[in-house]
Amino acid sequence: MQLPHFKYHAPRSINTLNALIEKMKGQAIIMAGGTELIPRMKMRLIQPENLISILKIKELEHIKIKKDKKIEIGATVRIDNLVNFFKENRPFNAIFQAANMVGSQQIRNMATIGGNILQNTRCKYYNRTLQWQNIMPPCHKRGGNICYAVKNSKRCFAVYQGDMAAPLIVLNGKGEFLFDKNFIQKPLEDIFTGNGAMPFNVGKGVLIKFILPQPEDGLISTYKKYRIRDGMDFPIAGVAVAIKIKNKKIDDIKICLIGVSSAPVVIKDIKDFISEKKLTDKLIHEISEIVYNQAHPVENTDGDINKRRYMIKQMTFEAIKELIDGYDK
Ligand SMILES: Cc1cc2nc3c(=O)[nH]c(=O)nc-3n(C[C@H](O)[C@H](O)[C@H](O)COP(=O)(O)OP(=O)(O)OC[C@H]3O[C@@H](n4cnc5c(N)ncnc54)[C@H](O)[C@@H]3O)c2cc1C
Ligand code: SF4
Question: Which of 52, 106, 283, 328 has the fewest Cβ atoms within 10 Å of its own Cβ atom?
């Protein structure tokens, strides 16, 4: 499949990037590793006139631990660099686990963390070639007013499958965006709309970096992923769990699901439920049941929806059990 024609720009600083964006008055699209954008362009799902590569901007490609122990991750840090950086980092183990399972090794070498978070939602009725698109009336995501996945639906349910969002969200990561020369930080979970047709509320903002807070004592985390082919595929269900242990009890817990909705799903009411309870297998089963009841995938990607929901429950159980059992070792 050939790419459509476009003009290519590669600024070397944030100032030049700003000037270019201003000159193009919103008619340009940002490219990082290109592993998600280029296939969409080949399918003619998007045909930008101008493409701005941000890979030559040095300020965007660093990971550093700040004096206050916060970690800053530039938007163009490659997924493979994250694997190496977070290896054997117990509090942030979920980042290592998720990064290590993004696509294949070739994808991880090219792909960036910023592109991973801002990847578009996907649907088996949308991510199709032009020939296929031409024979089907457009659905909501292509500007029409029907949905092939959920009959009579007034909105799009295309699924968000960015592996890295779940760990960054449970670890309370923030994204810093550049909007018209202003740098604005937002908690990552706040950038999603929940509408598959327009998944983000950051418009033409450029993602500059991520900020992770200093890890609190007793923080442990992990990520589990279900996909059709290990070593290649997108998550059709993913669970990130972060737990803070204090005095042998769970003092805090945050769980986020990926691959089952148009946005990451942050599980509600879980902290109050566990409060002051003794940590037993029964309690972990009950937590997994709460998580299961908040996962509602639809039939628009690989895998049976009942199996995906079941896997969410199973992976939640395994994730919490592994974290707790491994804590004292
Ligand atoms: C075979 C295959 C398997 C894959 N498997 C997985 C998987 O298992 N898990 C997974 O999560 N993903 C997967 N992907 C999707 C993709 O490769 C990754 O998500 C990757 O991290 C995207 O990063 P990128 O730098 O290549 O993004 P790009 O393709 O460059 O960009 C992706 C999107 O983000 C926007 N963007 C990028 N950077 C910025 C920025 N700094 N500011 C504003 N907008 C920006 C672009 O405009 C574009 O819309 C897979 C892709 C392929 C082709
Ligand atoms: S969920 Fe429905 S509207 Fe959205 S891309 Fe799929 S078919 Fe189209």
Answer: 328
Instruction: Name residues whose C-beta falls within 8 Å of residue 224's C-beta, 6 or more positions apart in sequence.
Output: 97, 238, 239, 315, 316, 318, 319
* pLDDT at residue 329, rounded to an integer: 56
Whole-number Å distance, alpha carbon 257 to ligand 1 midpoint, is 18
- The pLDDT of residue 323 is 94
Task: Compute the distance from residue 207 Cα to the ligand 1 centre, in Å.
Answer: 13
Closest ligand 1 atom, residue 38 Cα? 29
Domain residue spans in the chain?
A: 1-57, 66-118+159-327
State the fold for domain 66-118+159-327: Enolase-like; domain 1 (3.30.390)
pLDDT digits (tens, 9 = 90+) for 188-202: 999 999 999 999 999
- The answer as to CATH 3.30.43.10 being correct for domain 1-57 is yes
The pTM of the full predicted model, rounded to 2 decimals, is 0.97
